[in-house]
Design brief:
By secondary structure, this protein is mainly α. The chain has helices at 6-13, 18-27, 35-42, 44-52, 58-72, 77-91, 95-102, 107-119. The chain contains eight helices and no strands. The protein starts with 5 loop residues before the first helix and ends with a helix. The mean pLDDT is 93.
Length: 123
């Protein structure tokens, strides 16, 4: 997974987020969107919403966390940075949400989350 292809990879993996992705891309008026901003606006809000109702859409959450595990294990450090800073750091803002999320995280994502939380002094 490469940083330059991250948005395209996400859009292929999650067609259910097409409306939000299209809205975000339209905002950029044909320019390449900032990757961190794209993920903050397109993935983070529905991820938080799904974590609240974890039993209802567990399959979607598993797919999201599988994608995050791919990001966390990417050789491209910029991809890892998007996972850590844009997604995991935000999940840690709410301890209950973080606890639910960690139940679904892969090993690398969980370690990355722990590192982020320790770095911010929250663990």
């Amino acid at each position: 997974m490469k940083y330059s292809e991250l948005i395209d990879e996400f859009m292929k993996a999650f067609p259910e987020f097409e409306a939000g992705a299209k809205e975000e891309l339209d905002f950029w008026e044909g320019e390449e969107p900032a990757v961190h901003v794209f993920f903050a606006n397109v993935l983070s809000p529905p991820l938080e919403k799904e974590l609240i109702k974890i039993d209802k859409n567990h399959a979607l959450l598993r797919r999201i966390f599988s994608f995050l595990e791919e990001m966390a294990t990417s050789e491209d450090e910029q991809v890892q940075e998007v996972a850590a800073v844009t997604i995991l750091e935000h999940l840690g803002d709410d301890k209950e949400r973080l606890r639910s999320a960690r139940l679904l995280m892969g090993n690398h994502t969980r370690k990355m989350s722990e590192k982020v939380e320790k770095g911010l002094g929250r663990e």
